Amino acid sequence: MFLENKIKSAGKHGWIEVVAGSMFSGKTEELLRRLRRAKIAHQKVEIFKPHIDVRYSDEEVVSHDDNSIMSTPVETSGNILLLCGNVDVVGIDEAQFFDQGLVQVCSQLADQGIRVIVAGLDMDFKGKPFGPMPHLLAIAEYVTKVHAICMRCGDLAQFSHRLVDEEKLVMLGEKVEYEPLCRTCYCNVNKK
Ligand SMILES: Nc1ncnc2c1ncn2[C@@H]1O[C@H](COP(=O)(O)OP(=O)(O)O)[C@@H](O)[C@H]1O
Ligand SMILES: Cc1cn([C@H]2C[C@H](O)[C@@H](COP(=O)(O)O)O2)c(=O)[nH]c1=O
Ligand SMILES: [Zn+2]
Predict the structure, then answer these.
(1) What's the 85 CA to ligand 1 centre distance in angstroms?
(2) Which of 11, 75, 89, 156 is least surrounded by Cβ atoms within 10 Å, i.e. has the fewest?
(3) What positions does the entry give for Zn(2+) binding (predicted)?
C-alpha cells in the first residue's frame, strides 16, 4: 500500500513514483488506484500512454481486469510537457515504450511541483532493462516492484516470457503471446 503525501499541506514540491514489474503483475491496477485517490482528493490529474498501445482502447488506460481511466495517447515524451498545464498529478502507463526523453520530462515535471506516477515493464522478454525504465527507476523518489504469479509453478514472477517466435522488441500482446514466470521457470524454458 502506497501512502501519499499531502500535496497541499506540504507546499508545492513534486516527486517521481515508479511502479515496475512483469506483465500481469498489477502495474496498471496500482497506477489506476493511485490516480483515482488523487482525483478523490480533488487534485487535477492528467494521464498519458504511448500512442502505439492500442490493445484494449485508443484513449483509455485499461488493466487486464478491465478497469480503465481516460488518457491521452502521445507520440513522444515531449508532447507530455505541452499538455501538462496547471496539473497536480501526472500518470504515465506503458513507460517502457517511450523514448529516453521521458526521463528529462519526468524530472522537469517533478521539479515544477508535480507528482509523477510512472508504470512500466522493467524488463523485456529477454530479461533486459526496457527503454527509459532503468533510468526512471534510478531517479525516482519512490519505487514499487510488483509481481505476477508464475504460470508454471505459482511462485512470484518477475519475467515476461514470450510464447511466440518473434524477435522484435516491441510486440503488443496478452496471454496468448506472453506468460509471467519466476526466475527458476524462466531459466528452465530458456535452456530448452
Ligand atoms: N499470472 C498472473 N499473475 C497475476 N495476476 C494475473 C495473472 N494473470 C492474470 N492476472 C490478472 O491481471 C491483473 C493485473 O492486471 P494489470 O494491472 O493490467 O497488470 P500489468 O499492468 O502489470 O500487466 C491481476 O489483478 C489479475 O487479475
Ligand atoms: C515483455 C514484452 C512486452 N511487450 C508488450 C506486450 C504488452 O502489449 C505490453 C506490456 O503490457 P502490460 O500492461 O505490462 O501487460 O508490452 C513488448 O512489446 N515487448 C516485450 O519484450
Ligand atoms: Zn515458476
Answers:
(1) 33
(2) 11
(3) 150, 153, 182, 185
